[in-house]
Design goal:
Blueprint: H1 6-15, H2 19-22, H3 27-33, E1 36-39, H4 44-53, E2 58-61, H5 67-70, E3 75-78
Parallel strand pairs: 1-2, 2-3
Helix pairs in contact: 3-4
């Protein structure tokens, strides 16, 4: 939040000022807190968290994560790729 400037900062402050209270420090915590996982970034850390903590969650994949990551997921949908 501290890195925001200009129009981005104004938008956050005016439209969604509570966003910082919704942020968590790790992908694991974000996955565990939600009912739905939307994957919009492809990297090893996120794929590992999905494989380990999203087994029973609904997962929408926008970036085509690796087949090894999705193997154990119960509800997986790859879209837009």
């Amino acid at each position: 939040m501290a890195k925001l400037v200009g129009a981005n900062k104004r938008y956050i402050e005016q439209t969604i000022p509570h966003i910082s209270s919704l942020m968590v420090p790790s992908a694991k915590e974000a996955i565990e807190a939600g009912d739905l996982v939307v994957v919009s970034k492809k990297n090893a850390h996120i794929q590992e968290a999905i494989a380990n903590y999203a087994k029973a969650k609904t997962v929408y994949d926008l970036v085509r994560v690796s087949p090894e990551t999705i193997r154990s997921l119960e509800k997986y949908e790859g879209i837009c790729w």
